[in-house]
């Protein structure tokens, strides 16, 4: 998978136009900076075209309590989020796009003609599902030593009291509304409780129950600890059923 700089022009232009109408004091203008042969930076988001790895800074927001979100913007739903960040959601989504991740809408129930939810989900090809699977790790400084663990280890089942099982998250991409990128308005970056507004969603069990997942207090460093969120392709894929 190779990065082609010629793709930056149309993508950046369209995103800039969309963001200029967003309700922010300063419009976000994507500008891709080349750091090395394979590494690039967009705002506070960095990505590696060879490893297809994305990194961005965040802070621990909760050490205990019920969770609905993995990551939100600092001005977002912080009362139910494990981590907060000040990155631009548009920059993060642009990194996903330039690294050729495929967004999957498989987790979002299809509404009927009157807008009421049904019991049906989109039929998403197996190849799209596989391409949308990502691993999320978190890295931080622990008394002078750099530690890195899967983010699932910081999330606990409220009843079983065990950590969230190892497994992938889904790049779902979110959407635009009247020319505005939705996460820029909602602050939803990564959701545990399924959210169409979020860029990333949890595809595991109990992802529609807001009483199941809690912060794992024995494993999470203190509130306000600076961390780096690391996103990469999920490599341990099991065969997906045919659509």
Walkthrough of the structure:
This protein has one domain (5-233). 14% of the residues lie in helices and 30% in strands. The chain has 243 residues and is α+β, with helices and mostly antiparallel strands. The strands form 3 sheets. The protein has an 8-stranded mixed beta barrel with strand order 4-6-5-13-14-10-7-16. It has helices spanning 8-19, 89-98, 126-132, 182-186; strands at residues 32-34, 39-42, 45-48, 53-60, 69-73, 81-85, 133-142, 145-150, 155-157, 169-171, 176-177, 180-181, 188-191, 200-201, 213-215, 226-233. Mean pLDDT is 85; it is low at 1-27 and 237-243.
- Ends: how far apart? 25 Å
Radius of gyration: 18 Å
**N to C succession of SSEs:** HEEEEEEHHEEEEEEHEEEE
Mean pLDDT: 85
Strand order of the largest sheet: 4-6-5-13-14-10-7-16
Largest sheet: 8 strands, mixed, barrel
Extended strand count:
16
Choose one word for the global shape: globular
Task: Figure out the total of helices.
Answer: 4
Instruction: Give the strand content.
Output: 25-35%
Residue stretches low in confidence (pLDDT < 50, at least 5 long) are 1-27, 237-243
Query: Domains counted in the coordinates: how many?
Result: 1
